[in-house]
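Reposting from the mailing list since nobody answered there.

I have sequence plus structure tokens for a pair of proteins and want to know whether others read the tokens the same way I do. The first protein:
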Amino acid sequence: MHYGEIISLIVLGFGALLGVSALVSPSWASGIVRLVADPDPDKPGGYSEFRATFGGLFMFSHLMTAALLLTVSRSDVNLLSVLVVLPLAAGWVGAAFGRTVSLVLDREKNRAKGMIPVWIMMEFLVGLAIAAPILHFL
């Protein structure tokens, strides 16, 4: 197994762990992303959204990408490893891009403005780390 695939698998495990954590504790996920349930007493909840989007979606998309990467890494065709991880890696880079747009356009609406550049860099690096199988070609 190539070191780029190992890097990717470690970060995919991290993403799956984030998903499991959000699935088990939606209040933890709520605190991480700084979103809160609707304060209107007629609209309680919001936990199903955290469990679904930040829990199940994160966990299963990262686990499936890791499973596919483990499967194709056994072949001699290195391009398959890159193709397997590219969609999820692009999603993380896209999250960094969206957060950058928010940093520029939503200046007064953002809370904890000093943390936004940290999140941008983290999401960008996670995307690059998931795409690490491309190092086969360097």
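The second protein, same order (residues first, tokens after):
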Amino acid sequence: MDEESTGALGQRAEQYAFRYLIRRGLIPVARNFRTRRGEIDLIMREARCIICVEVRYRASGSFVNARLSVDRHKQAKLGKTAAVFLARNPVFRNYCFRFDVLGINRDASGQLSVDWLQDAFRPNI
């Protein structure tokens, strides 16, 4: 994965995360939901809960674990983008809502591991 462009790495990481979440029973709602405020990588559903998933990939040697790399600024952007999603999709108005971070970490041997932090943060919006 290291020799690929950053964009290609991000797309592969998102695809890996997407398949991972589906195998765990989540239902896809939207991928790469974009507004002028920002982007949400994956929007999934589990029962009556909408889950906004930020996918982060980190190669071996990275100083910060993937799931810890979502700072307050990014959290705020995700919250504002999620508000737009809800405004455009009122069918989900009465669903619970959470923000997850799914970290995909690659160790020195090339093995991938997934670190899924559910209900990772609550943005101030």
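Reply #1 (J.P.):
I read it the same way you do. Residues 1-47+67-107 form a domain with the Trna Endonuclease; Chain: A, domain 1 fold (CATH 3.40.1350.10).
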